[in-house]
């Protein structure tokens, strides 16, 4: 699980637009010619975010479909938990206790 955490931080860092906006404002304050370059970076980052959003699973489903799917999944979890508790109570196997 420790490997997944840095990847998650990297993804959230990639979605931040504030550093680019800050760079644009700094360029504007300095009357720099780099403003157009910084604006192009911002535009590319926004386009990348749009592509990531359109590739998200379930984005093409309506809210009602998502709610129905959520209700179905919750019912499956409830059923599986009930079965798990039932099978735990059966004690079909004698497990020797470690001493």
TrEMBL record:
Cellular component GO terms held in the UniProt record: mediator complex
GO MF assignments: transcription coregulator activity
Record InterPro entries: Med7/Med21-like, Med9, MED9_metazoa
Pfam families: Med9
Subunit (UniProt): Component of the Mediator complex.
Record keywords: Activator, Coiled coil, Nucleus, Transcription, Transcription regulation
CDD domains: Med9-C
GO biological process: regulation of transcription by RNA polymerase II
Annotated protein name in UniProt: Mediator of RNA polymerase II transcription subunit 9
Predominant place of localization: nucleus
Family: Belongs to the Mediator complex subunit 9 family.
Spans through the membrane: none
Function: Component of the Mediator complex, a coactivator involved in the regulated transcription of nearly all RNA polymerase II-dependent genes. Mediator functions as a bridge to convey information from gene-specific regulatory proteins to the basal RNA polymerase II transcription machinery. Mediator is recruited to promoters by direct interactions with regulatory proteins and serves as a scaffold for the assembly of a functional preinitiation complex with RNA polymerase II and the general transcription factors.
Cell compartment(s), UniProt: Nucleus
